[in-house]
């Protein structure tokens, strides 16, 4: 495999498992050192699937080290910008630079509109939208200071282009992430920093564990006609985390050097239906 990120350093949130782990391992295989953050602990009570653990984060560290690259793994909550800054500052002191940010940490809560509580709405917005803003704010100045430009990738969703039924908060937060990417792209462009949003469709990750399927089915039953609104064009229904990591590596590499403020969908066409 060619090393498309040799000598670069990537800051990745939500890296304990799922897509965040795939981004970390794939970027390390491409030659990048990694600053990896995850809450690695309980998610808000409204989240129906299993939470990540410190062992999950340790496994990501192990997998990255197995590639021969360096990694700083730390438990931090993306809702806490000071905690993020502390980790990124430490990582940059250790690895010498920052080139790439992947704001990937996120949660989802399937529930009908009238079962959504003020608390679950706040939790989803706080983590998916404010947490993504915090992630950029913790890292962007370091990329600017390097003077070489860089790439910021904000993980949105198919729900950031179209909408996801039974997830008013999630759809709002992921549309917000799309807006963050475009707005940051405008102001950071003069520093040769590209900012794009990446929009996965369904991905096979631990988001599907625990009571997630039961919660989805419960919500679907309230309005079954909406169930077909996310229909992929390709025969597969669900992507693997590595499929999304392939796109993230491309966005992080110089191969996409003129791509900024774009919405890059890896969703089997589902948002075009
Ligand atoms: N799985 C899907 O079908 C799918 C589809 C489209 C978009 N996405 C998005 O992709 C991203 C990654 O999700 P995934 O599928 O890998 O799910 P996941 O639950 O396996 O991974 C998300 C990780 O983020 C961490 N995290 C959550 N809140 C955090 C916080 N406040 N601070 C720090 N870490 C936190 C979790 O602990 C977890 O390790 C999310 O933004 C999600 O919304 C997922």
UniProtKB/TrEMBL annotation:
Gene3D superfamilies: NAD(P)-binding Rossmann-like Domain. It comes from Mycolicibacterium wolinskyi. This is 3-ketoacyl-ACP reductase. SUPFAM superfamilies: NAD(P)-binding Rossmann-fold domains. InterPro entries: NAD(P)-bd_dom_sf, Sc_DH/Rdtase_CS, SDR_fam, SDR_subfam_1. The keyword Oxidoreductase applies. It comes from the Bacteria. The keyword NAD applies. Keywords: NAD, Oxidoreductase. Belongs to the short-chain dehydrogenases/reductases (SDR) family. One of its GO terms (molecular function) is oxidoreductase activity. CDD domains: SDR_c.
């Amino acid at each position: 495999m060619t090393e498309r990120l040799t000598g670069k350093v990537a800051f990745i949130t939500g890296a304990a498992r799922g897509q965040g782990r795939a981004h970390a391992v794939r970027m390390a295989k491409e030659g990048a050192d990694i600053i990896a953050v995850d809450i690695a602990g309980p998610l808000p009570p409204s989240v129906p699937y299993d939470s990540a653990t410190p062992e999950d984060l340790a496994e990501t560290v192990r997998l990255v080290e197995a590639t021969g690259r360096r990694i700083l793994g730390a438990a931090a909550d993306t809702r806490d910008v000071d905690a993020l800054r502390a980790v990124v500052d430490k990582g940059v002191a250790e690895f010498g630079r920052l080139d790439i940010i992947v704001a990937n940490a996120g949660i989802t809560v399937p529930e009908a509109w009238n079962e959504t509580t003020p608390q679950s709405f706040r939790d989803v917005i706080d983590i998916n939208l404010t947490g993504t803003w915090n992630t950029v704010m913790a890292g962007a100045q370091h990329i600017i200071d390097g003077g070489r430009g860089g790439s910021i990738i904000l993980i949105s969703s198919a729900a950031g282009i179209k909408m996801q039924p039974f997830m008013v908060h999630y759809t709002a937060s992921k549309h917000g992430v799309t807006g963050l990417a475009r707005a940051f792209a405008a102001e950071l462009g003069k520093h040769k920093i590209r900012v794009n949003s990446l929009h996965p469709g369904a991905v096979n990750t631990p988001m599907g564990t625990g009571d997630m399927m039961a919660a989805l089915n419960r919500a679907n039953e309230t309005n079954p006609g909406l169930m077909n609104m996310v229909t992929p064009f390709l025969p597969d229904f669900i992507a693997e985390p590595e499929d999304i990591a392939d796109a993230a590596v491309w966005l992080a590499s110089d191969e996409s050097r003129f791509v900024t403020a774009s919405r890059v969908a890896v969703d089997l066409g589902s948002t075009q239906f």
